[in-house]
Amino acid sequence: MTGLVVAVITASLIGAGGAVLQAEPAAAAEDDATSSAVTLTNKDDALEPEGAPFPDLEVTISQTKDMVSQGIRVSWTGGEKSAKPDQNQGGANFLQIAQCWGEDPDNPGHPDRRTCQYGGGRAPGSDRDGSIELEALHPEDQKYSADVGGYAYSGIPFVASNSEGIVDEYAAPADRVLNNFSAPGVVKPEDQRADMANNQFFSAYTTNEVRWAGAGADGSGSVPFEVQTAMESTALGCGTPIPQPDGTAVGQSCWLVIIPRGTGDTGVSNITRSGLYWDAWEHHLAVELEFKPLGVRCQIGEAERQLAGSELVAGAVASWQPGLCRGENGAPFVLSEGSEADAAARAAGTEPSPLAFTSRPLDLAAIGDATDPLAYAPVAIAGVALTFAIDREPNPNTENPQYRDRAGLPFTEMKLTPRLVAKLLTASYLDALPNRADKDHLGRDIDGDGDIEWNPRTIVWDPEFRKINDPEWSEQVIIGASIADALLPSGRSDAAVRLWEYVLADPDARAWLDGADDGHGMFVNPWYSTNPDVQPLGVGLALPAEDFPKADPVTKPDETTKGGTGEINLVTWRPYTPSLAEGAHHVLRGDGLILGNWEPLPEPAKFGKSQRNLFGSQRVIGLTSTPAASLYHTVTASLRNPAGQFVAPTQDGLAAAAAAMTPTPAQPRVLQYDLRGDTVKGATTSYPLTMPVYAALNPQQTDEELRGVYANLIRYAVEEGQSPGTDVGELPPGYAPLPGSWVEQALVMADSIERGSLPQQGGGNPGGSSGAPRTSGPPAPPPSSAPAPVPGANAPAAGAPAATGAPAGALAGAETPEDPDAGPIAAAVPIGIGAGIVAGLAVPLVSRIRRRA
């Protein structure tokens, strides 16, 4: 099959990374794959170095090329200890960061401040406009200012990259800017006013600007920054394809700008004015960001080829597709993320179906057969991760001055045990339930003296959490619903099964779900208990599950007839995310999906959405994938593995787990990290939520041409597609390269799919066919004599870490009986949320995604 054309864009990943963050939040192996980091200094790169707030400022941007919709890391030294903002001033000794699209014609190599997405928060020190004394007005700001009686009203207009017909209004001289000013007794019609912050292009809910990034006592700091493309911000237009003479396309570049702010603005003792005013703007640092072109230029008119199943492979496929997008006789691919079990069951038939991506063997009961007909080709190694953005809020009475000095700075390390993960999945912390709802079932009279012992409000207040984490966590007074649980994706998935299996493999966590005390007085929310004697309906929760049920029927009652607010149930209080990738995206933005204020005026009345928390006050935990956490540069927790070690989801941790995988009992061609097996107890460096992803298809499907297309995709994935990096065709951060034996198995399976028959387990070919010669892709091993490798002790690729260490002893805690064989709980709260994201650009770009809940 020649000319395979692949066009897969997953809106949850492309167009839009996990990495474990220490002082430098990206794992070293992943940083090595990204060679476009840039360091800027005030001395060499500021527009005006003299008089800058931080003369020795040095800022490093983790990535400046191959940009998509993602996160990057901005780290700096040479600052000064920061003070947090409040309602009256913007803080002290901090940085502001924004994305801009246009170059300043008067200052080449620096962005035009009018093109910066800045001011959406409407807060002191970060507006686009305001009043200023005439004597403090810089000459560069005069054309955007007007004398309004002894002082100036000044506003830096926003000019969008696609603003034909709007530029005149927004890039207006003083008389137009004055239209946005209302003096006492002067009323301006709304259609004459240009709201410079909440315009039609961005608002507080969509802007990616960082209005306060603080430094510690040593003057250093580090924050992630959300990079937006034209898909998220049409006004910036970053990544919009620009055709080249050779028929290729490049993405429209943009700028990242860093504005240092000191302790006060010109003539005033505090930071209260815009960072776009020239006295602050002239000290900015900036770097140009090079974007991948949005969409993939493929031949249009061919029939779509379908892929279905695991979200874990989406980022890799998105990277591989441009390398496969060549030739004349291909077709665009569409990846439908959803239940892997459903995708595998469909791929097991003989009628043409999407190529399935799965991490578990086919459920034979689902197809009513005793034989598994699928060919399993390993194509990726990724994992599930818990990611977080939690900024310090020390107890004001703490006796440690270092803790007080770090107020507002982010935590970069967290350790979790299986039982702590279980607590985040079961709405067992008090703040996980709606305010003013009945929470009596989260408290117990343990001593029989009438005093109720309540479960902790959040994980940060949990004695078990504090015992295993840095002592600084114990000095925090952080509260909030979004750290009382984790943002969880809707729908069924292998990722959900793996996370529940991780919990159940631990005796302490299993006993806790069964109703036992955690040793500190905390009990499971009874609606989630696996013990029918504890669960209120007498039906224990059946685990492992393929989803994350909102099982507690608790509600805050409807009080609208009394002038109060409407009903709140567990879904409206703690909503699902549409995907694992969105979990990392929300964490990057500090958005815990907190329920907003009640809005009685709309019909019908409703709750609004809260604005995201900004740096200095972020508090959110989310479930995501390792590729998404790496893409968005969010911090991930280290999990305790069966060897008793806390391991982070780095590339090395994933590779070590892959090396410790063994065949599943049901299907020896599918490997698993057996959480209860002896092998993993010696794999001290392995990350326990590592998952393989297999491309699976019945070779006896009737469409021979389609089978050839799928076979070529597998061959590309396991050969050209296994080189780590961020460039087109490379394996993105968050994945581990396939070991050599996995590649061998994948190539044999690709041949089997194209040939139309599976090889026999011990060798030979049941169909007796030597297979058709390849018309594309690398040479195949002789299919008539090459059995599919079934590695029992999986050998990693050269350079990949092996599972190491002596076998660990039994984990702490006594063994408990196996979970009862009970049916699924009848959830009283609706839990199904359909979610879909469609990303598209005009022909000749092909860019699509479909997700099934």
From TrEMBL:
<protein>
    <recommendedName>
        <fullName>PBP domain-containing protein</fullName>
    </recommendedName>
</protein>
<feature type="region of interest" description="Disordered">
    <location>
        <begin position="756"/>
        <end position="821"/>
    </location>
</feature>
<keyword id="KW-0472">Membrane</keyword>
<keyword id="KW-1133">Transmembrane helix</keyword>
<feature type="compositionally biased region" description="Gly residues">
    <location>
        <begin position="761"/>
        <end position="770"/>
    </location>
</feature>
<feature type="compositionally biased region" description="Low complexity">
    <location>
        <begin position="791"/>
        <end position="815"/>
    </location>
</feature>
<keyword id="KW-0812">Transmembrane</keyword>
<feature type="transmembrane region" description="Helical">
    <location>
        <begin position="825"/>
        <end position="846"/>
    </location>
</feature>
<feature type="compositionally biased region" description="Pro residues">
    <location>
        <begin position="776"/>
        <end position="790"/>
    </location>
</feature>
